[in-house]
Write a structure and sequence with these properties.
32% helix, 5-stranded mixed beta sheet, alpha/beta
Length: 310
């Protein structure tokens, strides 16, 4: 390897740190490095600092990446570890995704101290979530359910459930598994019932485009199967001009004869949902995702994406 030290930038949340440590372990194994050659640098982002209101009110996906990307440009770090669903579809000039790690469980996790399944929620139940997508999907399926804003890490959300702020909440199965807390999952929701966010459960390693030695070191970690899937999902999202203010879901997954792509756009209040499905060979998957987005736009998706938060 042409570099003998790599500084890994990450947010400071427990999940972000778990993802950074996973990246460090993979780099150690791939290049025979000592732990001391791989420094983890914690960076506080705007999304971490804002805790008093929904993120959809104050900005887009860049809330969790902007400060880390600025550190990349300053040369303070060499690689950034991101939850790929937080990355803007348009990468800043000079930065690139150097690798995508193997994808974890894409499903959403239903978490409740009272109910064994999402379907068991009684009429008028109060559910907490900070996700505009989950809120819209829940309201679309169950208009009777009341949804309240719910932010914080796993422990914070569990404490809120114990305090009776809500009867249930949602997190990503992938995050709980990476934290070693899969036992917290009351029910893993089938993707047919709750289609996940674009690139959910995937980790992106971002590098400077002109840093060939680091890019080369990172490239060996790329999981091509995951990269193909999330690229198609991000093509879909980019065509729809989606942000964290827009309830958009998309998932590409392998099937017997290739890949299946499913996408949906919802009104923020859940009153409307447009869905689409395509199948394609591996080499045509991104084109199929683009066609899926164009299909939804032709059916009025732009009206839903421009309607803003509920």
């Amino acid at each position: 390897m042409a570099v003998d030290r790599i500084r890994i930038g990450t947010r400071g949340s427990p999940l972000a740190l778990a993802q950074a440590h996973e990246t460090r372990a993979l780099l150690q194994a791939a290049h025979g490095l000592e732990e001391s050659q791989l420094e983890i640098v914690v960076i506080t982002t705007s999304g971490d600092q804002i805790q008093d209101r929904p993120l959809s009110e104050v900005g887009g996906k860049g809330l969790f990446t902007k400060e880390i990307e600025e550190a990349m440009f300053r040369g303070d770090i060499d690689v950034a570890v991101h939850s790929m669903k937080d990355l803007e579809t348009a990468m800043p000039d000079g930065l690139a995704v150097g690798a995508v790690l193997p994808r974890e469980d894409v499903r959403d996790a239903f978490i409740s101290l009272k109910h064994a399944k999402l379907a068991d929620l009684p009429d008028g139940a109060v559910v907490g979530t900070s996700s505009l997508r989950r809120r819209a999907q829940l309201r679309n399926a169950r208009p009777d359910i009341q949804v309240v804003e719910f932010r914080g890490n796993v422990q914070t959300r569990l404490a809120k459930l114990e305090a009776g702020v809500a009867e249930a909440t949602f997190l990503a199965c992938a995050g709980l598994r990476r934290l070693g807390e899969a036992e917290r999952i009351t029910e893993a929701i089938a993707t047919e019932d709750m289609l996940p966010a674009v690139a959910q459960a995937a980790i992106a390693l971002q590098v400077r485009a002109d840093d060939a030695p680091v890019a080369s070191a990172i490239a060996v970690l790329n999981d091509e199967a995951t990269a193909v899937r999330v690229h198609a999902e991000r093509v879909f999202l980019a065509k729809l001009d989606g942000s964290c203010r827009t309830p958009i879901a998309g998932l590409a997954e392998p099937v017997e004869d290739g890949f299946r792509f499913r996408g949906e756009v919802l009104a923020p209040d859940g009153s409307e949902k447009l869905s689409v499905e395509r199948t394609a060979k591996r080499e045509d998957l991104a084109d199929a995702a683009m066609a899926a987005a164009e299909d939804l736009l032709g059916r009025g998706a732009a009206r839903l994406t421009q309607s803003g938060p509920a």
